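User: Predict the complex with zinc ion.
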Amino acid sequence: MSDESHHRHVHSSADPACLEIFARLSDYLDGELTAADCDAIQAHIRDCPPCIDFVASLRRSIEAAQHLGCEERPAALSAETCERLRAAWAESLRRRGGPA
Ligand SMILES: [Zn+2]
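Assistant: Here is the predicted structure with zinc ion placed in the model:
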């Protein structure tokens, strides 16, 4: 396989703030952030439809994992789940940048 390292920016239209939200989201959902960090994330999410969708999908995935009953508290999403969510989120961000 020719796995070239594409330095393509998947998040070309993404807000730096959105990227930061994404980086911290799993900690946020695990309740591991400080109140100030949570407030910052919630304030951003309120005004950012792609992030709203993303958080909703993430929560659904976590709930689905809980319903499987394997773990009482799913500490981490699987890499596959994370990747799928990240792709969906990036796509939402791209759509936001498109024609209204
Ligand atoms: Zn956002």
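The chain is about 65% helix and 0% strand.
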